[in-house]
Amino acid sequence: MSEYVLPPPPQASVSVLGRPERYAVRRIYCVGQNYAEHSREMGSDPQKVPPFFFAKPADAVFEPALQGAMPFPGMTDNLHHEVEWVVALGQPLHKATPTECAAAVWGHTVGLDLTRRDLQAAAKAGGKPWDMSKGFDHSAVLAPLQPLDGPLPTAGAIALSVNGEARQQGDLSDLIWPVPELLARLSQYVALQPGDLVFTGTPAGVGPLQPGDVVLASIDGLPPLRLELARV
Q1: Which among 37, 86, 93, 100 is most buried, taking Cβ atoms within 10 Å?
Q2: CA-to-CA distance for 172 and 14, rounded, in angstroms?
Q3: Sign of the dihedral through C-alpha 157, 158, 163, 166
Q4: Maximum Cα–Cα distance across the chain
Q5: Cβ atoms of residues 223 and 110 within 8 Å
Q6: Sign, Cα dihedral of 66, 56, 229, 169
Q7: Residue 137 three-state SS
Q8: How far, in Å, CA of 228 to CA of 212, rounded?
Q9: What is d(CA 183, CA 188) in angstroms, rounded to the nearest whole number?
Q10: How far is CA 101 from each of CA 182, 184, 194, 218, rounded to the nearest angstrom?
Q11: Contact of 180 with 172, CB cutoff 8 Å
């Protein structure tokens, strides 16, 4: 007899570059305003804002390379792109040091944190949660994970274009909170585990997307990410 009253949902997972095995996703964490210029464009002072975190459900993962064009999300008139460096953990971390956190990163990739900006603005204005603006279906778009070979990079160009027009440009060296420090801080709040993905923040230049748009996102040394938004 089954131990569940209903069949359990499929395990969320991400492709791994050059390997048949997939990376099982446990949780997805994101950090807000971790690039100075993006912090300013969102109306904050990067010198005064400590890192703040939010989450997406594991099954928000969407892989364009496997799943094709993405359905345009409903309930928004202002969908925004946010290109991000995403790290995947391979070891547990709880109240960890930056050195321990750097050693716990298993792989990394290019990601898009899609945001229903109009819903987020309304939530902020009303002092309400952001969940429906950040954690909707297909809101965590990912290229295949690349296993980490050597130390974490500390620099590298990160960029995004829409229909060939440059929108976001920055460098991983511009992170206000570098990945080891960011993970150390996050590990004070929650016990991180293998299977956790962490979106590390987006450079300035976030902006709107429309049905039919083609998004290209890249980070030096990683496979690029191409997303096409299906026409409604």
Answers
A1: 86
A2: 23
A3: negative
A4: 58
A5: yes
A6: negative
A7: coil
A8: 7
A9: 9
A10: 9, 6, 12, 24
A11: no
Adjacent-strand bridge partners of 161:
166, 216
With helix as H, strand as E and coil as C, how does 4-73 read?
CCCCCCCCCEEEECCEEEEEECCEEEEEECCEHHHHHHCCCCCCCCCCEEEEECHHHEECHHHHCCECCC
Looking at residue 232, its pLDDT comes to 75
Which whole number is the average pLDDT over 140-160? 97
pLDDT value at 218 more than 70:
yes
Share of the chain above pLDDT 70, in %: 94
**Residues 74-85, mean pLDDT to the nearest whole number:** 98
d(CA 103, CA 205): 31
Q: Which helix (H) or strand (E) holds 107?
A: strand 105-113
> How far is residue 159's CA from residue 115's CA, in Å, rounded to a whole number?
17
**Separation CA 64–CA 23 (nearest Å):** 16
**What is the mean predicted confidence (pLDDT) over 59-85?**
98
Q: How far is CA 13 from the centre of its chain?
A: 14
pLDDT of 44 > 70? The answer is: no
Closest among 55, 111, 117, 134 to 80, alpha carbons compared: 117
pLDDT recorded at residue 46: 65
Query: Does the predicted TM-score (pTM) go above 0.85?
Result: yes
